[in-house]
Amino acid sequence: MKLQFAMDTLTTEAALELAAAAAPHVDILELGTPLIKSAGLSAVTAIKDAHPDKIVFADMKTMDAGELEADIAFAAGADLVTVLGSAGDSTIAGAVAAAKKHGKGVVVDLIGVSDKPARAREVVALGAEFVEMHAGLDEQAEEGFTFSTLLRDGEASGVPFSVAGGINTSTIESVQSSGAEVAVAGGAIYGAPDVGTAAQQLRAAIV
Ligand SMILES: O=C(CO)[C@H](O)[C@H](O)COP(=O)(O)O
């Protein structure tokens, strides 16, 4: 299972600092949606230039104009981009067309989708590399949130999936056991007193 570090920060400088500390322990460097909105796609270029050996993931959360938004993110240096599963099929197909043009990939984020396993199968048929079983930061804070639903949905989908939703050292083993291809961790790494050590501990829990 790969480890993805979601850098939910707001400046390119902060992202470069986080990436430098965590990169030895992670496979995928994610530029979070707030970072892309705040700093722009030049942040993607900066991270790819600094870490050409890492998979760079632009969390675009595209909802419309799939081909255009994916194209500009790939041109900036992204290897993977996200489109929302609640977007229309034509938006997802457009992003997949851009990915084929660049030799890159599309991940469909199932945040907010009620029947995640069914939508997962549909979007993989449209050409998504894998889906993200995702409970966002707001959903994690809701009363009654249960992380285990994401794992159950991933297993039920029958397609390649990642999991994101407050993963930490106590939960990452269960993510691996669910058969996920990728575990995404944000706050557990960037919110730790020592970013490098936090990334290393998550890595150690799954190797
Ligand atoms: O995409 C996101 C929010 O929409 C986050 O990057 C993702 O949820 C991972 O962060 P955390 O581990 O802090 O939940």
Overview of this protein structure:
The chain has 207 residues and is α/β, with parallel strands linked by helices. It is 48% helix and 20% strand. It is built from eleven helices and eight strands. The chain has helices spanning 12-22, 33-39, 42-50, 66-76, 89-102, 116-125, 137-141, 148-157, 172-177, 187-190, 195-206; strands spanning 2-7, 28-31, 55-62, 80-84, 105-109, 130-134, 161-164, 182-185. The chain has an eight-stranded parallel β-barrel, surrounded by eight helices. Helix 1 packs parallel to helix 3 (42-50) and helix 6 (116-125) crosses helix 8 (148-157). The relative contact order is 0.16. The mean pLDDT is 97. Residues 6, 8, 32, 59, 136-137, 164-167, 184-188 line the site of ribulose-5-phosphate. Ribulose-5-phosphate is lined by residues 6, 8, 32, 59, 136-137, 164-167, 184-188.
> What's the rounded overall pLDDT mean?
97
Widest sheet: strand order?
1-2-3-4-5-6-7-8
Helical element count? Answer: 11
Range of helix content? 40-55%
Biggest sheet statistics: 8 strands, parallel, barrel
- Identify every distinct bound molecule in the structure, by name, code or SMILES: ribulose-5-phosphate
Q: What is the CATH architecture descriptor?
A: Alpha-Beta Barrel
Radius of gyration over all CA atoms, rounded: 16 Å
CATH topology: TIM Barrel
Which spans of ≥5 residues are poorly predicted at pLDDT below 50?
none
CATH C-level label: Alpha Beta
Structurally, the number of domains stands at 1
Number of strands: 8
